[in-house]
Amino acid sequence: MIIVLKPEATKKEIKHVEDKIRQLGLKPMLSVGKERTIIGVIGEEDKARIQPFEAFPGVESVMPIQKPYKFVSREFKKENSVIKLGPGVEIGGEKVVVMAGPCTVENRERLLRIAGVVKKSGAKVLRGGAFKPRTSPYSFQGLKDKGMKFLFEAKKAIGLPIVTELMDPRDLPLFLKYADIIQIGARNMQNFELLKEVGKTKKPVLLKRGMASTIKDFLLSAEYVISEGNHNCILCERGIRTFEDSTRFTLDISAVPVIKKLSHLPVVIDPSHCSGIWEYVAPLAKAAVAVGADGLLIEVHDDPEQALCDGPQALKPGKFDRLMTELRQIAKAVGRAI
Prior knowledge:
It is a single chain. By secondary structure, the chain is of the alpha/beta class. The protein has two domains: 2-63, Alpha-Beta Plaits, CATH 3.30.70; 83-333, TIM Barrel, CATH 3.20.20. Helix content is 35%, strand content 18%. The strands form three sheets. Strands 7-8-9-10-11-12-13-14 form an eight-stranded parallel barrel, surrounded by seven helices. Strands 2-3-1-4 form a four-stranded antiparallel sheet, with helices on one face. Helix 6 (192-199) links the parallel strand 10 (181-184) and strand 11. It is elongated.
């Protein structure tokens, strides 16, 4: 349930409500919004219903949440969540944030070169994998610790925050040290213990939708992150598995408006992984901006033929630069900017 507080509620009154929630064996979660301050109650809702919170000083009203996901829902928070990464970089605000870079970190020189290229074209975040989940155990698995250090070096040299994928909670300290956004990949969307661990941090999390997951499943996974106290969660639609085999996955473009109706969390789209083919990346990216996505995750490589991972879906720098110019026009048409 949600306990809505009066605008004039004092700290003492708020603490009194929180203490009572804890006495019931439940967990309070305070959320201070622009329009109102609320307390979300985590746990068995039946326990909370026996307590007449409406009678408490400072309480305006009590609202049950009907959906299985509580804290990611619009019922919990009406206004859009905005995830701040640093000066001038916010995901979920007016600007559409483009995150670009190679699928995997191959070496220091190439990463620095690509980072400079994508920043010049207008990308605000550098993407790159140091730990790579691969279908085959014989495929390149990433540079791991060394790759993380290369990403951090690129961040310092080029000035872009970085997003990179975490696969194992034992590596979390490394990500807390070097990454600006922790990516949870599609295959780990329902790795609930991993979600709990990143939920215990304050580090922004980019959660990718599983290839066979419903939107309800997706939002419940985000609930794991937020219920642990980390409200900095970004949702990423990257295509779902259907009977269609013309592309690697089928981009569920409708997921953007559907999620935005159900949830306050920002939504980005990965047109590279859903298509698997570079020539489809640009039209899908344009559609994403037009439909209201808050960001894009795009793979860029200066020599896709030699790429160690996912070369066929990577855009060359020139094509990425042209795409950014076209995306600015579309963003302007829908009242956004890039």
